[in-house]
């Protein structure tokens, strides 16, 4: 079956809309000669793998690295970048007693690389947080090629450099794979870790050659230079052959709402084994996806009266007549390949069925919306359900598929729902072929899943981006993306996991119910004809630089010669360290602490009380909202309830329980302007960029019924405030009334404009909406005016607000377009509602937001 056939089979019988199909053509390869330095043994090991000749770019990059030039290999996914670095590294290690370091941003990638090194006669090993203590000592003394990550380098190797002296003295190569991932605040941290490594190497008398690689880095030579602080040459001319890709953009349908006494549900929408429909107050609401083979069940309930009356069957059509009374009229499926159009049909008899509650809701980035949105807004079928349903169909058809899901919880849900879809289709024997994969699983669990996927034992895997990078799994046929992954770089990395053994791949981007996804599936050029994002790095960020100077000084006192390497000044060092005649010293009793990944501290361990079993870990930054006392926590399809969150010990104690509600944290935020760095005065509008202090606190959580999304109650929480000093962009508007809006509507208008602007910022800055915060108010204490703030969610800022300020007109124009183009009447998650709003999306005014943005854009146009 070709990729297009597979796509056609998915479209069949579904109401989700394919908004665009992009076909990326296949390309043939350009082989070259093996460079002279590659020894016979290596060539024969490669021949055993079926690699007879290098591609031209591999030979070019390998030769540059062999000659000691720092090089970045910036060719496509599956173009053989690994071999390009392995040729010089392995050849050198075989010829001398040199050592090499390989840095990868994920553990999965390091494990994958280790596998690809078997066959070469070099002692290579993974050295990361999972490596047992005893093994670490041995590796330090005898390891030749160590595969590790920047965190390990920072925490484990550099502070103990004296113990690593033998290894560092012989260090000839440092490979930085997937170098585009080192961006934003994390990238700035890694840039300093690399500078610290370079400084120590110099003390031990070496200056290793850096080899960087990424399929999705923009301006590779400049980006690689910024990261390493060295001049780097780029190899960009991709000479590998490439299979074609069929890339479909898919928009899940709006869920039909059955009003009392009239309305209709599309049969395929209603007939869903993977999600029954449920009723809400005074009206019945149809939800669901298509079942395998078009068979399914429909369940409708009239919740207010408590009268759950009818459950229907079918490949058919449903219509409601009166509260709490629903009739279901089955309809015959359409011809193959034809898309269903909703509409009533009454020529088939009715049947009754039983209600089952849907399994779980999600409150994480891939937020599982209730059947009706907040304030009665229409909602789309969630991307999670649509993905799960597509995944079940693909597994049933034997198509090996990786479904990327943005949140850990979402990955669990997709796997669980896909299994349920298979069970409902009486394909129980296939449920073992589906699993979830995410960071936070234990090492053995992850390795076992990777192996099973590779061997074909697993056919469908729902994974977070922990499996996005570099993992080479030949034979994967399809990739599903549950929502835009936040950057084009991620999009192409995820898409690049399929089609690696030459067969045409299918990639489907399933839009989430948010403004950016809605915009993208209707503007394919913004995906397919836009370069990958610039790798924004700011090693000069004082929140990043300062701590690394302390680390560097703790490793070896800093001297004046070190200042240019870090871009630091003597004044800065004087403020941080003790100055002595021989340099600047760290005099603290404990090692300086640095939060490399900006996760807000050490991860919190999730532990099952009773058994003491460690279920996994959760970022410190997410702990308050995800594992607060009372929170429902999911792990490998099992549900747990948190009894206690011990922030001092970094542990959340949970017990297995399956309540019929989900939990959703609520927070409150306050913002103060500290300083203004730049402003644009445009008549009634002033646009500013500056430093702000944001104080936020998770204060409560809601429990929502799984079957209907209905809010059961809101319970207070007693968690500490969190402080963030960061950078914000904001605008103020004057006028009477402001932008022609009634004063009572102004807060809703600003709030709606803020939400949509946050949703659209990833279009112009390398971030996703979970990296950004916002606040709007009809009168802010510092500006005394109606103000909308959008700020970076990282200490010291991450460059996103700055980018928003620089490209404000493009950003706000896209925001306005996304709101105005949305077909909903009064605001929905596709335009102005936000899945992470601390105020429950209240108040919001969609028309008001358009007016605010019109006023801002008109004013900015006058100064353009
Ligand atoms: N010269 C070659 N001839 C034939 N096959 C090759 C050659 N070079 C690499 N390969 C094979 O191509 C596949 C992809 O290689 P690799 O994983 O190194 O790609 P990559 O560029 O690192 O991809 P990604 O960016 O997705 O990580 C591997 O299975 C590898 O064995």
Automatic annotation (TrEMBL):
InterPro entries: DEAD/DEAH_box_helicase_dom (IPR011545), Helicase_ATP-bd (IPR014001), Helicase_C-like (IPR001650), HRQ1_WHD (IPR055227), MZB (IPR018973), P-loop_NTPase (IPR027417). SMART domains: DEXDc, HELICc. Residues 62-235 form the Helicase ATP-binding domain. Residues 389-543 form the Helicase C-terminal domain. PANTHER family: ATP-DEPENDENT HELICASE HRQ1. Keywords: ATP-binding, Helicase, Hydrolase, Nucleotide-binding. Gene3D superfamilies: P-loop containing nucleotide triphosphate hydrolases. It comes from Longispora fulva. This is DEAD/DEAH box helicase domain-containing protein. SUPFAM superfamilies: P-loop containing nucleoside triphosphate hydrolases (SSF52540). One of its GO terms (molecular function) is 3'-5' DNA helicase activity. GO terms for biological process: interstrand cross-link repair; nucleotide-excision repair.
């Amino acid at each position: 079956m070709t990729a297009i056939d597979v796509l056609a089979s998915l479209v069949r019988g579904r109401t989700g809309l394919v908004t665009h199909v992009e076909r990326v053509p296949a390309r043939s390869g350009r082989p070259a000669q093996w460079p002279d330095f590659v020894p016979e043994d290596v060539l024969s090991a490669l021949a055993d793998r079926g690699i007879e000749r290098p591609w031209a770019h591999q030979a070019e990059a390998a030769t540059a690295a062999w000659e000691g030039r720092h090089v970045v290999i910036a060719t496509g996914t599956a173009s053989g970048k690994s071999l390009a670095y392995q040729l010089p590294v392995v050849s050198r290690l075989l010829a001398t007693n040199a050592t090499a370091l390989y840095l990868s941003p994920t553990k999965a990638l390091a494990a994958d690389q280790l596998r690809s090194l078997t066959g070469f006669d070099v002692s290579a090993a993974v050295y990361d947080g999972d490596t047992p203590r005893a093994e670490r000592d041995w590796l330090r003394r005898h390891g030749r090629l160590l595969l590790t990550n920047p965190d390990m380098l920072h925490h484990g190797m550099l502070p103990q450099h004296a113990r690593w002296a033998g290894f560092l003295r012989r260090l000839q190569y440092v490979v930085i794979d997937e170098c585009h991932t080192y961006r934003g605040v994390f990238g700035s941290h890694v840039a300093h870790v690399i500078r610290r490594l370079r400084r120590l190497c110099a003390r031990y008398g070496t200056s290793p050659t850096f080899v960087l690689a990424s399929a999705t880095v923009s301006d590779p030579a400049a980006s690689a230079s910024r990261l390493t602080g060295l001049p780097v040459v780029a190899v960009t001319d991709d000479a590998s052959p490439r299979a074609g890709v069929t890339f479909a953009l898919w928009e899940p349908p709006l869920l039909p709402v059955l009003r009392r006494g009239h309305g209709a549900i599309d049969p395929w929408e209603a007939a869903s084994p993977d999600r029954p429909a449920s009723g809400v107050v005074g009206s019945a609401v149809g939800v669901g996806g298509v079942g395998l083979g078009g068979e399914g069940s429909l369940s409708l309930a009239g919740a207010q009266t408590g009268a759950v009356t009818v459950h229907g069957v079918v490949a058919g059509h449903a219509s409601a007549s009166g509260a709490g009374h629903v009739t279901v009229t089955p309809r015959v499926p359409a011809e193959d390949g034809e898309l269903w159009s909703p509409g009533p049909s009454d020529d088939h008899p009715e049947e009754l069925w039983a209600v089952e509650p849907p399994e779980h809701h999600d409150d994480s980035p891939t937020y599982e919306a209730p059947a009706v949105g907040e304030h009665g807004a229409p909602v789309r079928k969630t991307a999670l359900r649509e993905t799960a349903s597509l995944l079940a169909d693909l597994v049933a058809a034997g198509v090996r598929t990786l479904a990327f899901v943005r949140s850990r919880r979402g990955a669990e849900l997709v796997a669980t729902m896909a299994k349920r879809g298979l069970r409902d289709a009486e394909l129980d024997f296939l449920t073992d072929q589906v699993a979830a994969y995410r960071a936070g699983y234990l090492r053995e669990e992850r390795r076992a899943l990777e192996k099973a996927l590779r061997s074909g034992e697993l056919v469908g895997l729902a994974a977070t981006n922990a499996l996005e990078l570099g993992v080479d799994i030949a034979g994967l046929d399809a990739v599903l993306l549950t929502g835009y992954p936040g950057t084009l770089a991620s999009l192409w990395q995820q898409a690049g996991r399929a089609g690696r053994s030459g067969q045409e791949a299918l990639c489907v981007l399933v839009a989430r119910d948010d403004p950016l996804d809605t915009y993208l599936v209707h503007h394919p050029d913004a995906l397919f004809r836009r370069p990958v994002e610039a790798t924004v790095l700011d090693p000069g960020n004082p929140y990043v630089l300062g701590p690394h100077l302390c680390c560097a000084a703790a490793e070896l006192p800093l001297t004046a010669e070190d200042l240019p390497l870090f871009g630091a000044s003597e004044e800065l060092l004087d403020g941080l360290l003790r100055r002595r005649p021989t340099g600047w010293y760290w005099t603290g009793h404990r090692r300086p602490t640095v939060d490399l990944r900006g996760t807000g501290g050490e991860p919190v361990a999730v532990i099952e009380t009773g058994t003491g079993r460690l279920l996994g870990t959760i970022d410190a930054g997410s702990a308050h909202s995800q594992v607060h006392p009372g929170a429902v926590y999911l792990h490998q399809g099992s549900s747990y309830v948190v009894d206690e969150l011990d922030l001092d010990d970094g542990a959340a104690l949970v017990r297995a329980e399956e309540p019929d509600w989900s939990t959703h944290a609520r927070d409150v935020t306050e913002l103060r302007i500290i300083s203004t760095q730049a402003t644009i005065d445009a008549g009634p509008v002033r646009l500013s960029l500056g430093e702000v202090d944001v104080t936020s606190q998770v204060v409560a959580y809601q429990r929502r019924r799984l079957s209907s999304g209905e809010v059961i109650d809101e319970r207070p929480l007693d968690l500490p405030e969190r402080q963030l000093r960061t950078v914000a962009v904001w605008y103020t508007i004057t006028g009477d009334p402001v932008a022609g809006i009634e004063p009572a509507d102004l807060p809703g208008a600003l709030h709606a404009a803020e939400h949509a602007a946050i949703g659209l910022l990833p279009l112009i800055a390398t971030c996703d909406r979970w990296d950004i915060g916002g606040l709007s108010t009809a009168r802010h204490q510092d500006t005394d005016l109606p103000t909308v703030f959008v700020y970076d969610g990282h200490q010291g800022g991450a460059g996103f607000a700055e980018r928003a300020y620089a490209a404000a007109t493009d950003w706000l124009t896209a925001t306005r377009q996304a709101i105005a183009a949305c077909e909903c009447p009064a605001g929905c998650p596709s335009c102005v509602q936000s899945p992470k709003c601390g105020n429950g999306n209240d108040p919001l005014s969609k028309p008001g937001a358009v007016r605010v943005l019109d006023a801002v854009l008109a004013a900015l146009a006058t100064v353009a």
